[in-house]
Amino acid sequence: MTTDENRVVERTGWAPVRHFAERSVLGLIVVAAIGLTFGVLLLLVRFHWRPLLDLDQSVAHGLNSWAAGSETTVAVLQQISSFGGRGVLLPLVVLAAALLFLRRLPRPAIYLLVTGAGALILDPSLKALIGRLRPVVEIPVASAPGNSFPSGHALGSMVVYGMLVLVFLPAMRRAWRPWFIGLAALIVAAVGFTRIALGVHFLSDVLGGWLLGIAWISVTAYAFRIWRREAGHETPPITDGLDPEAGPDLRPAPAEEAVLPHPWAKGAEILVGWVFVFGLLYLVGYSVNRWEPPFDDAVPRWLQTFRTPDLDHLSWLASKAGDTHAILIISLIFCPLALAAWRQWRPVLFLALTMIGELTLFLCAAASVGRERPSVEQIDGQMPTSSFPSGHIAATMCLWVAIAIIVMARVRQPWRWIFPALAVIMPAIVALSRMYRGMHHPTDVMGALLLTTAWIGVLWWVIRPNAHAETLSEAAAEAEKATRSRDLEKVG
């Protein structure tokens, strides 16, 4: 036994070691049973066992007949299926690992990265080894590349959502843990169901993906628990999560008091501010609609003279930087990172209300003003909203200005000036691309600037996003202090 293990035995007796051994044996039996079941299923698929093939075909054709009858059903199934695709799972794992590194929890972060990387290797390797073709259904509603067994979506969702539960379970209150586990299980089950209903996998493909995912999580979780024991930590039941001591560090903002004092009063102030900003936008939009400045159509016409296929493509890319998907992705990345770095909900609330207010103000103002698009060729075609104010530009401005406000108060390093620069450069690029593509007038850009200035001004006055702002160095020092205190308590 190592010195650390001797200390553990001297302090607590042999009971924890005996319990760990018992749980280890039980865990190995469970993992072996799951692995054996997967192996049997793999052989049945590989050697084309007729009863299994008949069951697969029956389920595939039945669900295909149900799904193919409605385009809405297919669209919903595809959306749910995306939660098991690499486009969602890879960023989710990278973001979760980044959060853990920010919270100075390298071991669970490494666990996520290693376990996720293993799933990426297992999926294509087994598909190439088995070489099973995908289902052939009567009415194809979706397609997928590569072979069929096991389902990569089923495997990936089981591994990713399963390991996220194991890592973040200690941050949950005990009353909420069953709901957290149930939500993850529901997502995994829904993803597997959609792969069969869309006709891109057999039932046995999904079951194989689930079994392989459980086996892989079990192996890596067992290795992690061995790692903990060798470091001198106790080995509690797996129902407490992989690293129960990390619970305080995983909780979003344990030391923060009320996010907003007097929330009802603050809510009323925000609502009143929204009404006044909308009134201002409507007044300006009404005036511009009745009095059209001569330069308003002249600028898009002038930009139109520079159009080439290459510039059209570049303008499309620049325009995409301000669309709903890009803005949402950046927000969903920044908010968790900000919460992990500074452990405060207030800046996250500030950014969320900024974007919600921008969207509602833009939609209401555009519907009320009803301004026509520039009288030039519009590359993007007919749009569902009117021209004033520009939604792309307003969303880009609000996002990057709000992020710059949050970061500048909390970061002291020179690189913080990147964010004010982005708050100027990104809206300028999006504005130029939107006018080049014939979608907006210069006064629409001015309307977006007015919306951003007025709305962020309201939220700044009401929310005070930088009240009690903590710099990165202060947050790191506080986290280090808390970690040392817990270590001292354990030693004592």
UniProtKB/TrEMBL annotation:
<feature type="transmembrane region" description="Helical">
    <location>
        <begin position="415"/>
        <end position="433"/>
    </location>
</feature>
<feature type="domain" description="Phosphatidic acid phosphatase type 2/haloperoxidase">
    <location>
        <begin position="109"/>
        <end position="221"/>
    </location>
</feature>
<feature type="transmembrane region" description="Helical">
    <location>
        <begin position="109"/>
        <end position="130"/>
    </location>
</feature>
<dbReference type="Pfam" id="PF01569">
    <property type="entry name" value="PAP2"/>
</dbReference>
<feature type="domain" description="Phosphatidic acid phosphatase type 2/haloperoxidase">
    <location>
        <begin position="348"/>
        <end position="460"/>
    </location>
</feature>
<keyword id="KW-0472">Membrane</keyword>
<feature type="transmembrane region" description="Helical">
    <location>
        <begin position="324"/>
        <end position="342"/>
    </location>
</feature>
<feature type="transmembrane region" description="Helical">
    <location>
        <begin position="83"/>
        <end position="102"/>
    </location>
</feature>
<feature type="transmembrane region" description="Helical">
    <location>
        <begin position="179"/>
        <end position="200"/>
    </location>
</feature>
<feature type="transmembrane region" description="Helical">
    <location>
        <begin position="150"/>
        <end position="172"/>
    </location>
</feature>
<keyword id="KW-0812">Transmembrane</keyword>
<feature type="transmembrane region" description="Helical">
    <location>
        <begin position="349"/>
        <end position="370"/>
    </location>
</feature>
<feature type="transmembrane region" description="Helical">
    <location>
        <begin position="445"/>
        <end position="463"/>
    </location>
</feature>
<dbReference type="InterPro" id="IPR000326">
    <property type="entry name" value="PAP2/HPO"/>
</dbReference>
<keyword id="KW-1133">Transmembrane helix</keyword>
<dbReference type="InterPro" id="IPR036938">
    <property type="entry name" value="PAP2/HPO_sf"/>
</dbReference>
<feature type="transmembrane region" description="Helical">
    <location>
        <begin position="25"/>
        <end position="49"/>
    </location>
</feature>
<protein>
    <recommendedName>
        <fullName>Phosphatidic acid phosphatase type 2/haloperoxidase domain-containing protein</fullName>
    </recommendedName>
</protein>
<feature type="transmembrane region" description="Helical">
    <location>
        <begin position="206"/>
        <end position="224"/>
    </location>
</feature>
<feature type="transmembrane region" description="Helical">
    <location>
        <begin position="270"/>
        <end position="288"/>
    </location>
</feature>
<feature type="transmembrane region" description="Helical">
    <location>
        <begin position="390"/>
        <end position="408"/>
    </location>
</feature>
